[in-house]
Amino acid sequence: MKYFYFLLFLFLIISNTIGQNIELYSQFNGRYDYTALGKTLNLCENNLCSDLNNCQIITTPTSANLTLTSGQNVAAAYLYWAGSGTGDLNITLDNTAITPDRTFSYTLVANVQTPSGSVVTVNQDFFAAFKDVTSIVSAKGSGTYTVSDIDLLNTVQDQSQYFFCGNRTNFGGWSIIVIHEDSTLPLNQVNVYDGFQGVGSNNNNLAVQLNNISVIDDEGAKIGFLAWEGDEDLDVTEELRINGNVISNALNPADNQFNGTNSFTGDTDFYNMDLDFYDIENNINIGDTSALIELTSGQDLIMINNIVTVFNSTLPEPAPNIDNINSSCNSRDIIVDYTVTNNNSTADLPANTNIIFFADNQLVGQTATNNIIPIGGSETGQITITIPTNVANDFALTMTVNEDASGNTIIQEIDPDNNEVSESVNIIDPVIANPPIDIEECDEISNNQVASFDLTINTSLVAGNQNNVTVSYHDSLNDAENGSPVISTPDNYNNGPNHEEIFIRVTSNQDPDCYETTSFFINVNYLPVIGNPDDLILCDDFSNDELAVFDLTENSSLLLNNQPNSSLSYHLTSSDANQNSNAITSNFENTSNPQTIYTRLENVNHPECYTTTSFSITVNAINNIPLNEALIYCDEGFNLATFDLTEIEESLALSNSETIENYYTTASDASFLNNAITTPANYTSINDPQTIFIRVEQQDACYKIYEFTIKVENCPPFIPEGFSPNNDGVNDTFEISGLYEIFENFDLKIYNRFGSLIYKGNNNIPEWDGTSNKGLNNCGKELPSGTYYYVLNLNDANYNSYKGWVYLNR
């Protein structure tokens, strides 16, 4: 059957293994040795009974004997059990329920060929468990030990696992490793290493470095193994080496060490379980601190669960302890009581073993042991150390033994890793770490020079990085010196007189009589109380754009409220006022209507003391009122005339609360009171037509602007009936008033009584002075007195021609 399964279940590729490294678990120094007992659960080697019919594993209780001599006392006992699958972790030892302190696992990931010929990837899981059973074995001692309730049968026969049996990896078993002390033994060092590492066809080389050993003499040196799943019938390139040397004994050939044997009983039927030890006197050297274990296997899967070494060792084991630290007030000297022990050693500790003290890693003291300290003995000592000022009051005091200042071991010892111990120390030297600051607060609106102060803002300053001090506040130096009474609510303290002195006491928590004092002042600063401003209202201009320039200083006297040393500012938001940012100018054009202006009144010397308020600014619309009436005057020339503007007042119908402020030629001038017409009753127009604006003031309301039109028209000319061109300066020409400047396109013709044209005039020809400018014989001659006929054509659509007689009198 063995060969049948060998052909059907062929491992093709094993891709990975997972386990736990073998590491030191416990160490014993003294007159110690070890023995072991255990039992396999396999009925035969799994390589020989691997089909399902014959693949059985013991499910009933199994027993093994422990034999100790009368002088052997149990120091420790460790129960290990292991098997195929993920594990049965609840078992029984001598009717005592056992659950593991620790567990181990090992997974073999492999590609295997099934009976049908297909290849599948499987996880072959294995487990091991550990329980410290020292109390049970110590109480019982020699005798038979029975382990039950390890149930692995269903697991090893589970076809979903692709036959632990068929793959010849079914196993189970248990062992107890017993370390015992015997006064007749030499001084030994016994190390117990454990984990769960494997070797096999997938990983045929395994190297385990055993550290933390100390070899003084190789006489009686030995090494033991607890291994699982080894097959006697499979021994392909199987070797066990220590420090490169192959080891073997009568039960364990050099090429097949893991063959199901128990060196403690001589049994050879420990199927798939090896509980063996080897003498290694010639494979270890005096002075060694480590050993290299190497295991090779070309086919057989072997899992190492624990390794036990026994080496002759006569070394001291110094260890320090800080027993007590005393310090006194305002002193940097500390008195240290200490002990150096030589416990768990195999040799005396020489006198003058070095002792060094460090404060926060700074060397501060050095001494040595006075006497030889025997195995298991100790020596106490005392040293006074002055702590340098560059070391903080709170520091770590470190004591080392058997080391130099650089941390190097001076004399060889069993375990150099326990040569150091540290304790926290506080120098009872309370100081004022930093001077406290004076605290200033702003008065309340009442300005009664009383405010609430948080005195504790000085706590972190005066304490600094001191941890073991208490900071208290007091009303007087005497109270601070006595430590009582204290200010009970220092975070909410109302001052007495202004500019009050507050006293601080920094007290050591270790020695209440050790303290330092200091003081600071609290001061209440004047709080300017801002007054109540008026809301500012301006009338809009003729545009009614809701914008105006406000003189904010109109409120300044109300806001300042006659308070000296105060500064006033204006802001657009409450936040800006509180932060004193983005102040605006006092001549301010509003950006919205209405708009709130925020003001801040602050103490010039203490700007943090301020109050704020606000007022509104509003631009009211004005009435622009056009009048339907117009003033029309006769053209006085060039479309101009002199007007009495006050004639329009009859159409205004003003109330008693309204008064005419003045007349203006533009609405802008009327709005801003610029360029008023000084003589409205005698105003000469400047163009035709022209708009005139009247500003009317109203009580408790905005002004109005009335607008009306003044126009000129061409009035009928005045034609005289005669003139006398005698150069006397009176009526020397035929002067028709309003003709030349008004009817600029006129033409005038003069005829004598015979109907002859004797004069023709227009706007470019001077008035007729009785001289002819027409006719062949009369042109340029003075005409005699007489009556002449005229025809005046104004060339104006509003007027017909004028005809008539004029008398020329010489």
Task: Offer a concise description of the structure.
This protein is mainly β.
For the sheet with most strands, the description reads: 6 strands, antiparallel
Main sheet: strand order: 1-8-9-5-11-3
Distance between the termini: 178 Å
How much helix is in the residues? Answer: under 10%
Q: What would the average pLDDT be, to the nearest integer?
A: 90
In terms of DSSP E residues, the strand content is 35-45%
Instruction: Give the number of DSSP strands.
Output: 49
Net shape: elongated
Return the domain count.
6
Q: Uncertain regions: pLDDT < 50 for 5+ in a row?
A: 1-16
Q: Total number of helical segments?
A: 8
The helix-and-strand class reads: mainly beta
Radius of gyration computed on alpha carbons = 63 Å
Which features does this protein show?
810 residues, mainly beta, Immunoglobulin-like, 6 domains, 6-stranded antiparallel sheet, 5-stranded antiparallel sheet, 49 strands, 6% helix, disordered N terminus
Describe this structure in words.
The structure is a single chain. The chain is mainly beta. The chain folds into 6 domains: 2-312, no CATH class; 319-426, Immunoglobulins (Immunoglobulin-like, Sandwich); 439-525, Immunoglobulin-like, CATH 2.60.40; 536-620, no CATH class; 623-713, Immunoglobulin-like; 718-810, Sandwich (Immunoglobulin-like), CATH 2.60.40. 6% of the residues lie in helices and 43% in strands. It is built from 8 helices and 49 strands. A 6-stranded antiparallel sheet has the order 1-8-9-5-11-3, covered by helices on one side. It has a 5-stranded antiparallel sheet with strand order 2-12-19-14-17, with no helix packed on it. The protein has a 5-stranded mixed sheet with strand order 45-49-48-46-47, with no helix packed on it. The longest helix is centred in the first third of the chain and has 7 residues, at 2-8. The radius of gyration is 63 Å and the shape is elongated. The termini are far apart. The model is unreliable at 1-16 (pLDDT under 50).
